[in-house]
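Bug report

Summary: C-alpha cells for 4717_t:CDS:1 differ between web form and batch submission.
Environment: batch mode, default settings.
Steps: 1) Submit the sequence below via batch. 2) Compare with the web form result.

Sequence submitted:
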Amino acid sequence: MIKVEIVKLPTLDSKCIKLFAMGNNYCGELGFGYNVEEMKYPRHVEGLADFIVKINCGSQHVAALTRDGKVITWGCNDEGALGRVTKSEDPNTTDENVLAFTQGLDDAVIVKVICGINKQLTFINYGSTSHIKIANINIEENHVLIIMTDGYLYTFGYIDSN
C-alpha cells in the first residue's frame, strides 16, 4: 500500500446541467436513440433538463447523476454496464438506448458515478455509519484505483506481464 494525500469527499451537487452530445452513436450512447448514427455538431439531449448534476461516459455507455442522487443510464449494456436489465435480457423492459434509471440502489443517495469500458461504479454517501470510507475512484479498461479517506491507495484488476 502507498500512502497518499487525502482528497475532498464528493458531495451531491445541486446545480443542474444541460447535456449536449456529439460523435458516434453506434449503441445509442449519445442519448438520441438508434435513429441517429452520428452527430457532427453538439445537439441537446432532450428529457434530462433541470435535474442532471453530473455525467460520466464509458466507451459505449453514459451515466448521469440526478440532483436527488439517482443514476440514469443509456447506451450499450455489455457486461451489465448500465446497471439495469434491458430488453436484450428481458423483453418486458426498456431498450439499452432508452434513458432509464439504474436498478438495485433505490434507497441510496449516490454522490458520484464513474464509467469505464463495460462497467460503472457509484459513490454512495452513507455518512458516518460506513466502515469503508472512499475518497475517490478511477477506473480504466482493466483496473481500478481507490483512494481511501485515510490516505491509502488500493488497486485491483488485470495484471499484465509487467
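Above is the batch result. After comparison, the two runs are identical; trailing whitespace caused the diff. The chain has a mean pLDDT of 76. The chain is about 0% helix and 40% strand.
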